[in-house]
Amino acid sequence: MSVNDNYMKTLFTLKVLFFSFFTFAQTSNANINKIRKIVEQINKDTAYTIKTLDNEEFLEQMTDEGGQLTGYFKNRKLVKIIEWVGLSSCIDITEYYLQGGKLIFTYTKGSEYLYSDSLGTFDRNKLNMTMECRFYFDNNKIIKKILKGSTRCGGQPTIDLAKNYLEECSHYKKLLAKK
Predict the structure, then answer these.
(1) What tens digit of pLDDT does each residue of 10-36 get?
(2) How many CB atoms lie within 10 A of CB 2?
(3) Which of 61, 74, 84, 94 has the most neighbouring CB atoms within 10 Å?
(4) Is the whole-model pTM more than 0.85?
């Protein structure tokens, strides 16, 4: 085999890899755009049947400020869940979006109360968002993640959070279906 033949094979392999990656990137972007449109439609709709669970109905451990789980149903199908959990110095809100019973997107916002030296406690009137994360899913697999910031209550978000969201979403679907 000549040097030219090896060069041509290497060049061919690189072209195949490049086009495979490019095709995957286009497919992934198309899926993300599709998910964004679905989430936008869910958020625009106002004709939902709403079911709400309080602290003890969904939390294994009670928190200082409590919690609430809200399910949004369209034609008896769960399309959105909002989980609100209040801790002594933080509030976490996670929105779960579903299509066909499967999780397609989560958005979490973590906020912290500012500490007041003069009061010697957290000021409940001053809440700042310090963490934000988004996960896009396709068939229970993460296809994109955006992780920003951290909270004193939960730290910095990681990829492991997405695995927790898949499990929690499954659990929450069952709880809300019973209500």
Answers:
(1) 444 444 444 444 434 445 789 999 999
(2) 7
(3) 94
(4) no
